[in-house]
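User:
Care to share a sequence and structure tokens?

Assistant:
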Amino acid sequence: MNSLATRDNININNCKTLRTDQVAEILGIGRSSAYSLVREAATSGNPFKVIRLGNSLLVSRKSFNEYLEENGL
């Protein structure tokens, strides 16, 4: 199953947030690197917005897409 397509019968493309493993898959980087990037963004608010829910870090899809566009990706 492609994790970006569906998860538990929910269309992930309609979600307003991304999980860290999805960020890793989109960027083509390892999970450890993605977790470091997302944790840094959670602390600084740059290069994209991150929401903390308990122990989970969720990346704003909108700000992440803007980050990708600004960097030509």
Q: What stands out?
A: The chain has a mean pLDDT of 87. Residues 1 and 7 are 8 Å apart (CA to CA).
